[in-house]
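Design a sequence for this backbone.
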């Protein structure tokens, strides 16, 4: 997922007065650049999004999503992603930390927590909650 493309989708969601925006955590930037060709322009962008307004750091990419949610007027929640096995808890905690440090409002977890034995699922959900309850994890 690209921060510039998902940011545009976030902006559209807020424009139609969504209360919450759910989006995958961006992994890169430059989606518009990849889609644009000399024959056909795809959307409008400003080169500063790739040079000045964000970096390749995961928190900056997520922060760009928050900025496109009218600076958090509509809360950004990121999805936890697909279940991948043994590393699910670590991935969920990492995503929650990135979201919180970027100014997001939460993490939605489905498959990572609910398609496993209840004890493991509860551990994942508790670990995610612990991130948002921990006052030492602040906006970067």
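Sequence:
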């Amino acid at each position: 997922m690209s921060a510039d493309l998902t940011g545009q989708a976030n902006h559209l969601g807020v424009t139609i007065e969504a209360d919450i925006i759910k989006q995958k955590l961006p992994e890169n930037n430059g989606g518009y650049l990849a889609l644009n060709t000399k024959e056909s322009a795809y959307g409008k962008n400003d080169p500063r999004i790739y040079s000045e307004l964000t970096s390749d750091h995961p928190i900056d990419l997520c922060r760009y999503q928050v900025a496109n949610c009218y600076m958090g007027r509509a809360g950004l929640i990121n999805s936890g992603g697909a279940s991948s096995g043994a590393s699910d808890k670590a991935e969920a905690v990492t995503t929650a930390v990135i979201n919180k440090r970027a100014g997001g409002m939460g993490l939605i977890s489905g498959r990572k927590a609910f398609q496993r034995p209840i004890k493991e699922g509860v551990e994942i959900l508790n670990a995610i909650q612990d991130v948002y309850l921990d006052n030492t994890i602040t906006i970067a």
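The mean pLDDT is 89.
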